[in-house]
Structures are given as structure tokens and as C-alpha cells.
Amino acid sequence: MRSWSVVALSPDGALLVTASWDKSARIWDTETGRERQRLDHPSLVQALALSRDGKLLAAASGPRAIVWDAASGTEQRTLAHEDTVTALAFNSDPLSPDGAYLATGSEDGSATVWALADGQSVVRVRHEEDGVLAVALSADGRLLVSGGQDGTARLWDIRGGKEVGRVELGGAVQGVALSPDGQRLATASHDKTVRVWQVAGGKQLFEMAHDDSVRAVAFSSDGRTLASAGFDKSVRLWDAANGTALGRAEHDDPVLALAFSADDRYLASASGIAVVVSLWRPEDLVALGCGHVSRNLSADEWGEHLGDEPYRKTCPDLPGGP
What we know:
By secondary structure, the protein is mainly β. The protein has helices at 282-290, 299-306, and strands spanning 4-9, 15-20, 24-29, 35-40, 45-50, 56-61, 64-69, 75-80, 85-90, 101-106, 110-115, 120-126, 132-137, 143-148, 152-157, 162-168, 173-178, 184-189, 193-198, 204-209, 214-219, 225-230, 234-239, 245-250, 255-260, 266-271, 274-279. The chain folds into two domains: 4-280, Methylamine Dehydrogenase, Chain H (7 Propeller); 281-322, no CATH class.
């Protein structure tokens, strides 16, 4: 049986990349659901990442991170750790002055940033205890965040390799994400919390709770929404400015991974043997609905379904209404 453990979306949401317990990474067409390509690995694929332009795919298998050409399936580079690679992250701007970087985290307790132009290690940093479970890079590739089994999330200056900040949680840090502007850090923790921190100074801004261990967290590309997921089998959406709950979706199994498309239209979530790719913004859901109906609700129908909510013509280009 295949069990999807990690997931990534292409920038336009047209391609979905999944990895599972069958030691493969697969590329799917999101419109048809058909498999386009399968990339087999020597062992379980623990993590996936797609470059911002969708051209490079990184997959972690055993103590190595393998970088592939996403279009052709050609292996580009192999990057090695001393123990299992558990986390991957590209810098989000492949045209940044310092070029494209890939960050890797490993059970050997280290996080490494690699220059993809030549495959050389730019910097390697270490947690004093246990492994690194999550990594994130700032858009310009100058700040690295590592989340550890030791319950800390640490910020590193890549150029000097020095720790420039640290936050401590009540459980292993299983997911980290930087806001697009690089000013906020989100953490997903085994202590059932999602927390948002100020990068400069490490002040906690707000905290949200799940019913069980939180496995993944992701900012939308516009930085306005935060998604989180975990072992309570839920995906939750939050206002990234204040932590207000915006929505929730349920899965049949624990949710292990999340990914927004670069245009923010789609959110992918991996759970058990299923991966769900869905529209999540209200305006996109309304546009989808309007494409499947021939008229707006009447005033009576509106009142029946939406109660006292003020009437509005949901689909401006369609007939109907009071």
C-alpha cells in the first residue's frame, strides 16, 4: 500500500509531486489525476521540495538529497549527509543575487545550505542534540531556519554560519515556515501548537492550537494566510496577521504535509493514501461554483440557505436575483 508522506505543487498548480512509502517520487497532472512521471529512489523518500520556478525537484532518500530536472526526470546532483535527510527547502527566489540554494536537514543533527550552481556546501550548522526535522530559507537565501527534535527553532546567518536567533517550544519542532517578506516565522510543534514569531528579536506574536501534534505549516505566497496540519487529521487556515481561524478541513488520516501553489489558488495536503488538491480562497470557490450554475439564487432561496446574511448577487454575469 502506498502512503503519501510528502507533497509539493508546481507554481501554477498544474503539477503535483508526491512521495510515499514505496520509495518513489511521482509527478501528477492535477487536472486529470494521471501520473506523468515516476522517480524511483533507493530508500524511503522522506522529504520533497520544488524550486520556485518549478524546474528543479529535490527528494530526500536515506542520507542523500537528490536534485532532479522536473521536466525530464534527469538527475542533476546528489548531496550527502551522514544520516537520513529529513527536510528540504529551496530559497523562493531563484533569481536572487546569490543564486539558487537548497537547504537540507538531517538526523545527524545538522542543516546544510548548498549552492545548486556547483553543488558545493555554503554552510553547515548543527543542533547540539538530536536531529533536524524541518528547514526553511529566506527568499534571498541569506537566512536559514532549522527546527529540531530538541524543541528549538534556530535562525542562522548563512554567510557567517552564526546563530542569530532561537525560539524554544514544548516539543519537537516538526515544521517551520518563513513569511514571504522574511519578517515572521511560523512553527509547527509536537506540543500541539502553531506559533508565529517575529524574526527580529524572536518575540512570539500569537499562538494557535490543534488537538494533536502539528506536523506541517505553510504561508500562502501573499503572506496573508497560514495553513497548518497534523495528527488530529485536520487542515486549518489562519489569518497570518493575527491568528484568527479562517477555515478547517478534515481528513481520514493524520495530515503529514502541506503546500500552496505559487499563485495561491491551490492548497495540497497529504494524508494516508490520499492527496487532496483544492481551491481554498472564497473568491476562487465562488468562481468555480458560478461556472456550474445558470442563474443566481432568488431572494427566497438565499434566505432559506443563508438566513439573515445580506443578499448579494454572487455571480455578477448570471441572471437572477431579487
